[in-house]
Amino acid sequence: MQDILEQALSGENLNENELVKLYDLDIFTLGKAADSIRTQKYQKKAFFNLNRHINPSNICADVCKFCAFSAHRKNPNPYEMSLDDILAQATASYNNGAKEVHIVSSHNPNYTYKWYMNVFREVKKALPQIHIKALTAAEVDFLDRKFGKGYKQVLADMLEAGVDSMPGGGAEIFDEGVRAYICKGKVSSTRWLEIHRHWHSLGKMSNATMLFGHVESKVHRINHILRLREAQSPQDKVDSKQGGFNAFIPLLYQRHNNYLDVKEFPSGQEILKTISIARILLSNIPHIKAYWATLGINLAVVAQEFGADDLDGTIEVESIQSAGGAKSKNGFDKDELIFQIKNAGFTPVERDSLYNEIRVYA
Ligand code: V47
Fold first, then answer.
1. What is the pLDDT of residues 285-307, one digit of tens each?
2. CATH number belonging to domain 4-360
3. Fewest CB within 10 angstroms: 13, 17, 87, 134, which?
4. Which residue's CA is minimally distant from atom 2 of ligand 1?
5. 209 CB under 6 A from ligand 1?
6. What is the pLDDT at residue 73?
7. ∠ CA 195-350-93 to the nearest 5 degrees?
């Protein structure tokens, strides 16, 4: 069984049905292999940033069964933020030390195309130093379809309006059969990848998520990871920050307040194995993020021993995963994050959105 690990580590071209056997290895064997890659890249550094999530609206034209955030029967509190609300939140966070705003919304049919671009332009005008990470590929696809712009035009307009990078949301699970069940009508997997590739070709960075732990199989997860590996720009471009995926983020499904009927959930061991496998297979994606909002801080810190090197950031207000039951509504205190990382034997490194080091908390 070790053979499959050696083959995976040597970059052999195996398919998802072969690579799924990695899950049969014990957690320590997998973890050790992933940790040695992680340690070689970053030693004991564990990255985080000071960021602020802003979700302008929860009114959504789509109905993803896993989503507890959008306004629906189980969450009947529709809202729409104004530009002034968004600017006030971004400014307060900036004054509080945030270096990034992560702006993603539902697919709100009431907002105009101009409204979106104006938000980015005005945030950039008010806070030129802040990094704007905004619009998932699913939102780009929504704007393309609703306003007939073509996704390349949407991306060009985002760039012109001041968006610096794209978040990794909307990827869910690439398998189209699963997508048809969990998020029918949303961006297709092929289009999600095309949008990111085009963004990369403009010299920009983005992230890639994978929503796991619901109805997908382990083979679907491996297939998702392999498609990301294939879509990534060549290694030399990524290293010089010239466009590509910066981080892979496995998002653990939160099961409350939604319409997905899930019978089995991954154990902590299976979650860690998924993170290790991602580190082993994604040799061309620099960072693996253990997103504390879905894993909880304890598992997110342990995941640093299993291939992850990043925990995301302080967030301040988290609305998507907390709607599904995660205990992340109020973000994470910076000093507490630093304490947790140190307490686990890692060196906290505050980074910017492109993983340049800002401060090492030795
Ligand atoms: O795409 C929705 C997921 C994503 C649930 O790029 C859920 O740095 C778990 O993409 N349980 C949005 N997840 C969040 C996201 C993200 C988060 C942090 C950092 C970055 C980054 C990106 O949240 C959606 C969807 O996959 N999601 N509902 C749920 N019940």
1. 999 999 999 999 999 999 999 99
2. 3.20.20.70
3. 13
4. 67
5. yes
6. 81
7. 75
**What is the edge-to-edge ordering of all strands in the sheet holding 347-351?**
310-313, 45-49, 347-351, 357-360
pTM of the model: 0.97
Residue 31 near ligand 1, beta carbon < 6 Å = no
Q: Is there an atom of ligand 1 within 6 Å of 246 CB?
A: no
> Residue 211 C-alpha to ligand 1 middle, in angstroms?
7
User: In one letter, which amino acid is 226?
Assistant: L
Listed by start position, the domains of the chain span: 4-360
CA distances in angstroms from 198 to 132, 136, 205, 360, listed in the order given: 18, 13, 11, 34
Q: Which of 1-5, 36-40, 79-83, 314-318 has the lowest mean pLDDT?
A: 1-5
Choose the residue to mutate in 132, 251, 292 for probing ligand 1, maximizing ligand atoms within 8 Å of C-beta: 251
